[in-house]
């Protein structure tokens, strides 16, 4: 899996696979606690129904195990505070056009305390840059709840375009893709 090796940084963020990040970069190192703290009701509101609601540390541990079975998850750390402020969830699939390469399905979330600080745009921009350096990645795609205007703007600012094909139609969600 290509995304298991994903690590990058922006001016304000350090991003690395959540089991590989160093204690120097993220001294807290309590992943279940960080996930439980980040996944509040407002943060999970536009996520899949099974992910919604409040989180205990135990529920967060189960959620972490589920994500590990499905793909790669990155922890997003604010360089200035060394606190985890978000997660980026990645799934690899065959490229839509059937050609060489893969498509990475992208999901991200930020803790409420990180909202409105420009982290999402920088996070996605950094990830796109990392993907451009991987010759086997053909495209990046992600779904956004129709009412999540901020996330739509983040993707559009980073070159993603709204697409909708038969296999990707999900009620109340819009699908965006960036060809690399």
List the main descriptive attributes of the protein structure presented here.
alpha+beta; 8 strands; 180 residues; single chain
Walk me through the topology.
Blueprint: E1 7-9, E2 13-17, H1 31-38, H2 41-44, H3 57-70, E3 72-78, E4 83-94, E5 102-110, H4 119-132, E6 137-145, H5 149-157, E7 161-163, E8 173-179
Parallel strand pairs: 5-6
Antiparallel strand pairs: 1-2, 2-3, 3-4, 4-5, 6-8, 7-8
Helix pairs in contact: 1-3
Summarize the structure.
The protein has 180 residues and is α+β, with helices and mostly antiparallel strands. 27% of the residues lie in helices and 31% in strands. The model has no long low-confidence stretch (mean pLDDT 88).
Could you characterize what this model shows?
The protein is of the alpha+beta class and 180 residues long. The protein has helices at residues 31-38, 41-44, 57-70, 119-132, 149-157, and strands at residues 7-9, 13-17, 72-78, 83-94, 102-110, 137-145, 161-163, 173-179. An eight-stranded mixed sheet has the order 1-2-3-4-5-6-8-7, sandwiched between helices. The protein starts with 6 loop residues before the first strand and ends with a strand.
Whole-number average pLDDT?
A: 88
Q: Got a strand count?
A: 8
Largest sheet: 8 strands, mixed
* Number of DSSP helical runs: 5
Shape: globular
Structural class: alpha+beta
Percent in strands: 25-35%
Main β-sheet, spatial strand arrangement: 1-2-3-4-5-6-8-7
Low-confidence stretches: none
Topology order in helix (H) and strand (E) letters: EEHHHEEEHEHEE
Distance between the termini: 18 Å
Helical content (DSSP H or I, runs of 4+): 25-40%
> What oligomeric assembly is this protein in?
single chain
| Backbone CA Rg | 16 Å
């Amino acid at each position: 899996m290509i995304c298991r090796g994903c690590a990058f940084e922006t001016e304000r963020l350090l991003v690395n696979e959540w089991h590989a990040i160093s204690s120097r970069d993220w001294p807290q190192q309590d992943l279940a606690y960080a996930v439980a703290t980040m996944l509040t009701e407002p943060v999970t509101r536009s996520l899949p129904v099974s992910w919604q609601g409040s989180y205990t540390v135990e529920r967060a541990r189960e959620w972490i195990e589920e994500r590990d079975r499905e793909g790669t998850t990155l922890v997003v750390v604010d360089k200035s505070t060394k606190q985890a402020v978000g997660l980026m969830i990645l799934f690899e699939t065959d490229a839509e056009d059937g050609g060489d390469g893969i498509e990475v399905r992208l999901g991200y979330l930020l803790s409420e305390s990180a909202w409105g600080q420009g982290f999402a745009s920088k996070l996605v921009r950094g990830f796109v840059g990392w993907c451009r350096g991987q010759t086997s990645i053909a495209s990046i795609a992600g779904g956004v709840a129709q009412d999540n205007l901020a996330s739509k703007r983040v993707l559009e600012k980073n070159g993603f375009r709204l697409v909708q094909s038969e296999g990707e139609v999900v009620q109340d969600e819009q699908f965006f893709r960036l060809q690399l």
